[in-house]
Design goal:
Blueprint lengths: L2 H13 L4 E5 L6 E6 L2 E7 L4 E6 L3 H4 L19 H14 L17 H12 L3 E2 L5 E2 L3 H11 L2 H4 L11 H12 L5 H22 L1 H4 L17 H20 L2 H17 L8 H13 L14 E2 L10 E5 L10 E5 L1 H22 L25 H11 L19 H15 L6 H6 L8 H4 L7 H7 L2 H21 L7
Antiparallel strand pairs: 1-2, 2-3, 3-4, 5-6, 7-8, 8-9
Length: about 500
Amino acid sequence: MTAEIVEEAIELAVKGTKEIVDFCDTLQPYWVLRVRGHAASWLVKTRARTVKIGSAIPPAKAAKIPQSRRRGAAGGDRFLGLRDAQKLARTEWAKLDGRPQNNEAEKPPGWTWGKLVTEYRTELGKMREDASGKPIFPSADSQNDARLIFQRPEVTEHEDKLLTELNEEWLEGIQAKLHARKTGGFTAYRKFRTYAQAALTWAATYKRRESGLTGRRWWLAAEKRQRTEKEVREKRQRQIALQKKKENFKVEHLGQLLAEHERFCASRVGNARVSPSVRWGLWWDALTGHRRGSGTWIALDDVQYQDPNGEAGWGLATWQAEVMKAQNDFTLPVSPLGLHIIDCCMRDWRKAAKERKKNRIERPSKWVFTSRVMSNGDVPVSGSALANHLRSMRGLRQGNHRNVLRGIPPFSMHIIRSTLGDFVLDHTNLPPGTASLIIGHEIAGDRRDELDRVGRTGKRWYFQAQRIPEKTAAMKAWSEALLKAYFAAGGIYPD
């Protein structure tokens, strides 16, 4: 609906028409300018009702029409200009609950912010591909981050706003509110900006007509924010504290942790018993130094009990691309201790399943360290389960009041990863870059795009893409050091 269309309608009305002529807005299809006889009326139409909200004819021009030829209505003949009529039509349409029923012409003009959030979160849960054709696997962390940031009250209060009504000032306003939060302010702002811009760009690219985002991409013009001086100082202090934790937690302390862990598990009986996947999962994470949360995401089919090109007694374990942050397959050589951990976990799960099912084995799981929370489906034990186990050992959970980890420097599951890397760097004579290989960092000079396509049975995959010989040397040194520290803390070989 434009000013030119309104002028055309007014001229028709002044002259008078024998037929009804409707001018319909494309963005607000329920908003109609109808010329009938000598009247030009603003209407709001739904399937159930049609309501007149005013006249489009200015009083000066209306005076030229004889009184006998003017039409009146209960909605009044008050004059409404183009913009006023547009705003009032939106309000009246909402009052009439003008949701369309199988009528495409009556759909509201594009998506609301709430609709965009729903559609984008659904998209994040799908398997996609990037511009080069490489598959992008759904990330549980990304989905959770998007869910949490879009559920902030500063964001949800805009659910009913149409995307066509939003602009960069709107985005900047929410950014400012989130940044002003007392806790996590800058992080909340940064995550909202990232996910909001990604959602809007996705809709404008792939759902342009449906979403209504057919114009300029205003969200890219929204100004960025910086950390305040106070926030910069606080971030620096957190970095120093984290670095101090990493420096203080050595392999000796990890040995003490595992010894206390075994004693703690042995002391738990009945419903308080520690799950086999948590007991052996902590050993597995300590041995592999994998990323927090994804270390135990290993399927039994991805474990080879014999490395065809390696030492006797050693195997291989592969994490699939969908559980890796870099979204590339990652393989580690598994020492005899690692294979023993897998066997013990599978044995204890079969025993626990028999007890629960009264001699009936419950359905098998594809995961080595499977979760016993079956309501979530067949999933591996989570990083939060291991974190909760550590909290229990620290006496921080209900029913556990004794801290069996006192004397061990503060640490988290993720710090184990740094402990492994630092040990390989500082206590072995292995070539530079070996520590990065073990913890899954990219290697400078690698042609990842080519090597990722090399089949798993090929020697190029074994020696170049995954660097198994170098990893084996590092894993051998780490496995021996871990057991030595464990025995020094009074532990006995786990079984």
